[in-house]
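BUG-313 | component: ligand-complex export | severity: low

The export step for manganese (II) ion jobs runs without errors, but we want the raw record kept on the ticket for reference. Input record follows.
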Amino acid sequence: MRVVTSGSAYLDIDAYACCIAYAELLNCQGVAARAVSGAPLNASIPQRLKVNGDSLDDYLPTAMDEFVLVDVSDYHHFDPLVVLDRVVEVIDHHPGYEQYWAQRLGSAADIQPIGAAATQVFQRWDKADLLPKISQQSAALLATAILDNTLNFTGQMTTAQDVQAYAVLARLASLSADWPEQYFIECQAAVGSDIAAALAADLKQMKPESGLPQIFAQMTVWDADILLQRHRSTINRWMAEQGDDWLLNLISIRDRKSCFLAPAEVSQAKLDHLLPLDWQAGLAVRKPSMLRKELLKLGLCAGHQGAPNTIVQ
Ligand SMILES: [Mn+2]
């Protein structure tokens, strides 16, 4: 059995879609596979696209099983059920571990700088000439994962392949022309219905050398202004319970901006060091929107340019 799985902390729609759609492809090709994960699903997965309630298959792998990792390649963050020596394939779009996997797996490691790992899974279906057999659900999941991970095609990592994959998948899944708007509005409703859970499900602890605030939460919604109007005090309260030095990057698809929420001066100063921002009562707006991985890249570069001892502090 091939166990198709992803990271340990939570599943976003890209990881979730890739697990399901890639296991489906393997089964179509006569390789027994199942999509398995013990991680909770975050607010990027709409209720109506969930295949099995609020979790994936909780199958317990046997000593005979092999593992396929999707949307993750940093083995520190693999689902705990993974046995590293029995990983046979990796499909991912995060930088950092390309060499490691190329040495271990050769061409079975597919790590590309692309908007969504879902686009890579789409390419597998396409190459196998099996797209006419993909389930409507998997097509909808992959298409929506592309929307989410590319910020509706405005993210800096978006490629022409993402755009093309979405067009084909949206047709196969019969998605309407206004599906992107519908989808992000639905995410906003999910976030708004339980702010604390949504923050917890996309929160990362940043290392000092990142040059970023220690606690970094990120959420993507349709209209950030409305969300902030309704929930800003709850967000402030909940984030302050996690620590003093925190940042929320609230990405607003409708107006293509990031709202950075960081009340502490120490957190604001870290961001000021990386890009010009105008802080008003703990809030700064950045247009076009930015992803956490883009800020991390800026932070790491700034660290390397400074004096060596500023990196390790
Ligand atoms: Mn992804």
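Assignee comment: Attached the raw record above. The chain has a mean pLDDT of 93.
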